[in-house]
Protein 1
Amino acid sequence: MIRKIILLILVMGIGKSYAQDTKEPQNDGTATEVVTPPKEEKSHFMLRGFAQFGLDASSDNVEFNMTSFNPVILYRQGDRFLFESELEMEYMSNEFSLNLGYASASYIITKGVTVKVGKILIPFGEFGEKLHPSWVNRMADAPLGLGHDGGMLPMADIGVELRGGLQMGKSKLSYSIYCVNGPRLKDGTMGQEEAGMLSWENMNDNNKNKALGARIGILPLSNSSLEIGFSGYYAKPGNSTSPYAGDSMNMDLNYKDVTALLTAIDLSYVKQIAPLKGVIDIKGQYNMSDVSNATYLKPGDTNRLTNRYTFTNSSTAYYAQLAYRPTMAGNKILKNIEVVGRYSVYNTPVGSLWESTQSQISLGLNYWFSWRTVLKVGYQMSDGVPAGMSGMSMGGASMSSMSTSTVNTFQIHLAMGL
Amino acid sequence: MNKIKVITGLMFSVLIATIFTQSCTTSKMIEQKSGAQLWGENCIRCHNMPSPADFTDVQWATIGLHMQDRVNLTDAEAKKIVDFMKSAN
């Protein structure tokens, strides 16, 4: 670890010296009237961000909500150093939360290599890092499983990242590789109904080993319209010691060797297509999470023979989205209208106390007032057995016997990039 | 589950192979792309395209760095796009 840090500092140092040979504007003094080119400010501070305000209505609830107000602070020093940070302010279901979305410093070491440190957005798949701001996301909310609450994927974490883009012939390669604190395994000692889940809110790490991850994006077409991304993330999320150390009955339970492997494929295709008179935007992401098997304790059962259970700890979440906007239409109003549809699914492990299956069809009609101000009107049909309903189905009773519930929601949201 | 992994692996290898064979050919066509063209191709992929007039030169320098990082643009692309934004605002 120490060797890695020293190496990083060295690399940064080399980058710095390379940065110093930037050109100064030359002035030979021969002209009588010297027009000096406007000097670029060496450093620049910028406040941006986004906000979303809306109304969600279902058959038994009508609610105004402020799903996001996220100021983003950017600070540039020279032409290689950038600090970026995002505050997430959310007011939902009577609760206000303030979160540090990300706060990281990046430095371009050399062509195609940027080093980034701090609380970084995790480049796992495409949605979390590149599409989550409400004015970028074409739907009013995140796909199932990819949101902030109860999501199965890492969103942001503290660590180091190397990333960049490289031209390879007519294709391009986009890479990110990172090392972060990683998730914590909920072993059931704090909230037995969540045993086996990964907790991503983990600013103090619970063990020595770090999580490692990478995403490789390939843009095979020379016009950059298609990107296919492959992501992997590996962590050992368990505590290094047994949480039942003093409990003679359960001290054999240990989670230090539990491993978590997450993988994802994402796809993005965006292109203006003349015969269709507009822009087609296709997005999709398929995510899998596999946590190795472990034994947990059943709530309220003290019988040594029956109080343990295990399950195959695999979750999947995926979505596919298609949007179309007639940007080439003659009519000014029509030009700004966009139709969008999304199908999304989220399945949590069968046999766990948080077993659930959810699917959702979302249809949306957007009106763009500017390139980053949009009114989204949506209709969402969600089906599923939410987590907790299948509580005691452990080790057998399948979810199909459970009645699925359907909720239809009407949404109207105004999202603004600030 | 395993099938998916095999298919992913296969797709990945095919893509990598394609890239390596392609990268042997010269990419004059890429080198000759203008900042305006790169702006049109790249800045539409996640959000609508901002127009150069939306920001000042200093702001474009900062945004250029921010987007180069977020999108993993190549250095040449980022430079050409920012130069174009500054010249057309």
Protein 2
Amino acid sequence: MISELRGTSLREEDIGSGNVLTTEWRPKLDFAFDPGVAIGQFLQGLKEGKLLGRRCHQCGRTMIPPRMFCELCFRRNDEWVELKDTGRVNTFSVSYVNWDASRREKPQVPAVIEIDGASPGMGILHLLSEVGESVKEVMARVKVGTAVQAVWKPAAQREGSITDILYFRPLS
Amino acid sequence: MPKVAVLGAGLTRFMRRSLETGRELCWEAASAALREADLTLADIDCVVMGTAPDAFDGVHMKGEYLLDGCGAKGKPYTRVYVGGGSGVFAPIAGWYHLASGAFRTCLVMAEEKMSPTQPHPQGAFNAIYDQFTERPLGVNLLWIFSLEQMRYMQTYGIPMESIAKVAVKNKRNAKDHPSAQLGGDFTVEQIVNAEIMAYPVTRLMVSPVTDGAGAMVLCNEDFAKKKGGKHVWVDGVGWNLDTSYWTNRDLAYPQYVENAAKMAYKMAGIKNPREEIHVAEPYDPFCYKELHHLEGLQLAGKGEAPKLLEKGFWDRDTTTGIPSSPSGGLLGVGNPIAAAGIMKVAEIFWQLKGTAGARQIRRTAKRGLAQAWGDLMQVGTVVVLGT
Ligand SMILES: [Zn+2]
């Protein structure tokens, strides 16, 4: 039973006006991440214009993003496999929001793409482009299952990053 | 299994920005729960705290920061964490503290103060994405939910209007919740036509940023019997996590929620949840999630929760269905991450006790469940309560 309810709700104008005293703190946090064994090789593959997966001979799965162990069989998996740079849209969205909640004029179209040559359901996150610039246009061109292909940066500009693939676009 | 009873619960107001610090919010919630339990801090043997990322409060070791407001000075105290699932996981941890036989009583806390993060707490979530394969794409938190909602809709052919009805129902229910931040009457059109955040998610399909805290007092069977009176009991608990490779997961169906629910049902001796669960508080940070979770909880078949919603099966005043989110949920009451989870467990407690006031469901209820979800969309936490 809620008998006595506490909490003092502030309004936006309480903050700037000095009605409520506040303190600001801006942490500066820099990190340098080590890529690890599997993702290090994956990034090297991207630099060479290839999508690499790892295969486990026990369960037969080909995994992307790659890992050096199979989380199902819980054993070291077995080999690198070069996958195609085509795939199918598992799901997608038409996003008008940036990370800081500010809004975009033109939307981004993030998608999970199941990569051809990997086991069913094995997808990666990336962006779609050449699919229109409004919800209506994108919804007319993309569906779950739409076949797509990677559009790569020119070889000389690749740096071993997921952004070496600029985006995916519909095959037809 | 040793029996554990619920003696009391307490909440603060849920607010976009509170004057109170997290520690002060905890103190208010803990005091309210002790009042209902008719106990003092001297009766409490141990304290469990559930709270989500430190980054919101801008305080590292947030469990320790909140300790004094939780009444934990000089007591066995543990912070537990499974992201958004933490608020329902905290009572689960309280349950195993007592079921182990180590303690008689446990004060279970949950807190979130999201408002300090500038410019928006969403930024703190970017670090949940993989540093190499995802973050360089310019990610934001809403993507994963909009991607999951799209997969759910296209797998089962669910229209936007059906999804939107969850917000209509929950915001309406929340009008009767004293803590509520966003209760109100909305039409399906208003929800569907609200600003597009990340299609298919619109602004009114998203729960708000919230500050708030909640608390519950649990005890073992001996203590409950000495206290006397009728009690609400923890009949079952369950939790489960799916792979962190989220782009390799079935996004149309929360298998981990099914696994968690089955663990809790087995403990509670429940064979047919659709008959034996009489009221539910599934986690609803987004409209589609309530439907997704009702299916994972085995209260609806795959893709069928939206059809039942159309028929009023989940309405608070149903006499033949299962009222779902009678509290008003995260969409209506607000979403102070972990505190929202414990708000759901508290609602089931009050519903079974018959003290939910204007929110009291019409059908008789002997058993209910609360469920939360979180981490990288991979954890299900379930508590089944019964009289
Ligand atoms: Zn394997």
